[in-house]
Design a protein that fits this description.
Layout (H helix, E strand, L loop, with lengths): L6 E7 L6 H9 L6 E8 L5 H6 L6 E5 L4 H11 L4 E4 L5 E2 L3 H12 L5 E9 L5 E3 H4 L8 E4 L2 H5 L10 E4 H7 L10 H11 L4 E12 L6 H7 L1 H21 L4 H25 L5 H20 L9 E3 L2
Parallel strand pairs: 1-2, 1-4, 2-3, 6-10
Antiparallel strand pairs: 4-9, 5-10, 6-7, 6-9, 8-10, 8-11
Helix pairs in contact: 8-10, 10-11, 11-12
Length: about 325
């Protein structure tokens, strides 16, 4: 009988001692047991270290100065040994069968499939919940399958990725880790776009991850407070992806989609800068153009040009 592959789970954390234990317990409570858990403490100043030491040799602690989640993820990957690698933010948690189902599907899909992605529930502080596949208009027609066109679809929207994916190590070594040149928020989208160029993904429609809404302290809210920097990062992201598509001589449809997104990102950066401008009328002009951009985006989503998921069922 073939041995179960080792899965390395990377949990970066920074001053989240009150919630990191729930994340760790959700990994240790997986029905799949061949796991190594690596918690990267990104320079916490609270009692994170004392709480982590309670777990003894059930987890491995990697400590570093505060350098941000991207470097923490990469430090964890470099320290890991598994054939497969997964990630979990320290304020989120997994359902018990997540890893078992993803490993089984990757085994069925075969070694050419770079990763397996599952759906995610976002749990808001007001008690409401949202499926990220549904909100991203990317619901597969079957429970499990092979997603044949991830690159096309992810050119036009993003999905919560790092907490929901399991990736083959050989693909990480070939395609690269998280890109440290990109600012907060953009680095996850760039990572998933880069991996989408590696081929079809295994996909699970069920929501096997719960992401907790952190309110004003969430990364998404932090990014929105720095809108100009956020949109500058998005422009750089699309410039990078366009260059990668050209370098790898990808198909012309993929190139057209990437160029479309680059043009849109550049327009939105102009509108954001206008909104922040102190000159009379500039902010109003920026808001007006941003509204037009949202209408254009809505029309695009309803057009036949908007990529739809193509998923082949795996029984």
């Amino acid at each position: 009988m073939k041995a179960e592959p080792l899965v390395s789970v990377i949990i970066p954390t920074y001053n989240r001692s009150t919630v990191v234990c729930k994340a760790i317990e959700s990994v240790l409570g997986q029905t799949y047991k061949n796991l190594e858990v690596i918690v990267v403490d990104d320079g916490s100043t609270d009692d994170t270290q004392s709480r982590l030491r309670v777990y003894g040799d059930r987890i491995r602690i990697v400590a570093q100065e505060n350098m941000g989640p991207t470097l923490a993820y990469n430090r964890g990957i470099a320290s890991s040994k598994g054939e497969l690698v997964g990630f979990l933010d320290s304020d989120d948690y997994w359902l018990p069968t997540k890893i078992a189902r993803q490993v089984a599907l990757l085994e069925k899909a075969g070694p050419s499939v770079p990763c397996c992605l599952c759906n995610v529930t976002i749990a808001y502080n007001d008690g409401t919940r949202r499926s990220t596949f549904k909100s991203g208009n990317m619901i597969p027609h079957c429970d499990v399958g092979l997603w044949l066109n991830p690159a096309e679809v992810l050119m036009s929207r993003m999905v919560i990725f790092s907490q929901a994916v399991v990736i083959r190590r050989e693909v990480l070594e070939r395609a690269g880790y998280f890109n440290e040149a990109f600012p907060l928020y953009s680095e996850d989208h760039e990572f998933q776009l880069r991996l989408s160029l590696e081929g079809p993904w295994a996909i699970i429609r069920d929501e096997l991850v719960v992401c907790q809404d952190s309110g004003p302290d969430s990364m998404g809210q932090q990014a929105l407070r720095e809108e100009v920097r956020l949109h500058e990062g998005i422009v750089r992201l699309w410039e990078h992806i366009n260059a990668r598509i050209i370098e790898n001589r990808r198909d012309t449809r993929l190139g057209r989609l990437a160029r479309r997104e680059l043009r849109r990102a550049k327009r939105e950066l102009v509108w954001v800068r206008l909104r922040k401008c102190k000159f009379t009328g500039a902010a109003a002009l920026g808001r007006g153009f941003s509204l037009i951009e949202r209408y254009r985006r809505a029309l695009y989503r309803r057009s036949p040009l908007y990529p739809r998921m193509i998923v082949q069922q795996l029984s």
